[in-house]
Amino acid sequence: MSTIKATNIVRHEGHVSRDERESKLKQKAVLLWLTGLPSSGKSTIAYTVEHALAKRGHLAYVLDGDNIRFGLNGNLGFSAEDRTENIRRIGEVGKLFVDGGFLTLASFVSPYSADRDAVRELMGEGDFVEIFIDTPVEICEERDPKGLYKKARTGEISNFSGISDPYEVPEKPEMIIKTADWTAEEAAVLIIEMLEKSGKIQAQQN
Amino acid sequence: MSTIKATNIVRHEGHVSRDERESKLKQKAVLLWLTGLPSSGKSTIAYTVEHALAKRGHLAYVLDGDNIRFGLNGNLGFSAEDRTENIRRIGEVGKLFVDGGFLTLASFVSPYSADRDAVRELMGEGDFVEIFIDTPVEICEERDPKGLYKKARTGEISNFSGISDPYEVPEKPEMIIKTADWTAEEAAVLIIEMLEKSGKIQAQQN
Lengths: 206, 206
Hints:
2 copies of one chain form a homodimer.
Chain A: H1 18-25, E1 30-35, H2 42-55, E2 60-64, H3 65-72, H4 80-99, E3 103-107, H5 113-122, E4 128-133, H6 137-143, H7 148-154, E5 175-177, H8 184-197
Parallel strand pairs in A: 1-3, 1-4, 2-3, 4-5
Helix pairs in contact in A: 2-8, 4-5
């Protein structure tokens, strides 16, 4: 027979609740969904928000091509069907991260309204915030840090959102960030103010 | 032009690191992979560990059928191919949670060695701990809280691990929990001691 002492440990048949994690983390979890054309500035804004939140002691996480496309969704391509499954899986992972208590940012082109709406539908009330990174295609193409637009124009890349594949502009996003007017830092301020106003994080006193 | 003041916010082009999150959370992330027959006691042990960790101020999360089978992997069945994809996706999500800084528990039958080994391969050194919940099939079948063994015996459920589908016993798991000898509370003590000894969490003073 065992002689292990487990005086402080109680048997449980169910999960620790999201509420308990949020209380510990002193934040309310949410999925911020950044959508926009390639090179519109989504990821820079997401990272800038993530770092600003971390500096304030919050737990945040960015889901993006870096950690999704070569991992979970490495077996998907860019057909319409695969794009839908891509966004569906990201939505499900976002839901898990929100359940985990994270201020979660998803940074994906996510060009189809129906796919984004399906994620909104999946999430609980108030858990999904659609942020349209509204950068005109001409500016995106001028920036083109990875040379993708160039390759899309020559046909080296096909099914490229905004060039050879549709990008459906969000009809009723919770926020619109016009990067022609605002820097990434300014966009981050707007997003963090929104998180404060909606009670996801506490306003800073200063 | 904008008049937004972003004096404390700095532009970033990359993710906040796992190290930073682990420092904030005062823990080292890990994926504890609980494998064993249906009704072997995996989830009860996982929940008991999760609650005990939460009580000590840690952030933990359990991935299991509850939050995976009807969500991310709702489009998968129980064929060998789908089982492999099921475990692959769970491994990828586990990797994201570990990157997020969580003490992550995965509670899945995961009957095939090759699938479990693929998750081990995916994770970084020391990030994967395989825990075999070693309950004899007779005891699992006697417990049968969901009546699944009964349905497997009558053929109402096919491809049932341990009855009509193989369960490949782990050859070199980091831990073996014999639930015939130990209660869920005792198993949790053993797992938490292992987390302390491997430096994932600090030992409690008392």
